[in-house]
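Duplicate of earlier report; GDSL esterase/lipase input re-posted below.
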Amino acid sequence: MLYWRALVAGFLLFTWGGLGVSVVTNKLPPCEFPAIYNFGDSNSDTGGISAAFEPIRVPYGEGFFHKPAGRDSDGRLIIDFIAESVKLPYLGAYLNSLGTNFRHGANFATGGSTIGKPNETIYEYGISPFFLGMQITQFNQFKARTKELYDEAKIASDRDKLPRQEDFAKALYTFDIGQNDLSVGFRKMSFDQLRAALPSIVNQLASAVQNIYQQGGRAFWIHNTGPIGCLPTNFFYNHNPPPGYLDDHGCVKDQNNMAVEFNRQLKERVIKLRTELPEAAITYVDVYATKYDLIGNAKTLGYADPFKVCCGYHENYDHVWCGNKATINNTEVYGASCKDPSKSISWDGVHYTQAANQWVANHTLYGSLTDPPIPITQACHRQ
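Output:
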């Protein structure tokens, strides 16, 4: 059954009843993306931080891959659903040197990455050394080095694992980063100081897009940042927040306000980029609205309490992170998965379950919450 929702500027928006998929239709031909190149943090890391440091443990990944797969979830991430939607294989991490096929793209995202250059180590608060500027440097090296290897390859099987140079101009370039810049800011700065730093952070993301454009990239899919104030970790040690601290959905109001301001500035910068990069097709994706709607309507949509963590042990002020062990009151406690992650929104207190990721993907990949309103399969077309 189809529920008609709107007809705006030649785009037809409708929802398939029961599937939770919002779709914009138009007469543009589908894009033939030969590859995806992704830049981001743990929301889209498919194995980078696991390859560079300690591998992610069980029960991560077991809900879909049946083993840890370098992802901070029980299964697939939004970037995996992006790959599925454009009919490409799941992205291998650039940092994973063993058995990775880069013919259809590479993932430069790592858990803990920021847009701005970090001034602390990963061993302090989990902030990755592979910030966005470093990821762009890695991409530039990847593009140059794979050309050399492709030209030097003597047998077809060696070339088949490497990208064709002409594919870089036709590829889709995706960005999902910024959450950790806010997280670090909340820890190290006043709200006024962080607000003053936002233009610089946003401009660094814009510089990354400009760099890829100069390398021939033309299609960009840019996520804004999610409602960071809704992450359950905010309440691990704050069980009784004062009046006015929370918003209508029970999230930390000031943190979400900062995320909204970041997103406002990011959208303005994307609009400016469209003028600066006349051949680029740049889509701004409102994942904030999607995640916030999911959290606010969790019960109606059939999910458990959005502030209840599926994986890990979190009782009173005792916390054992997902997949870890600890001794509490002389008893060894394991941070296990909940019985049915498909009913949960939060996987480990910071990251989303596969079910939540799929819900967000269903509401962002088909044009209903993008600017311009275009599905990802047509994101090569400049509007």
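DSSP finds ten helices and 13 strands in the chain.

Merging into the original ticket.
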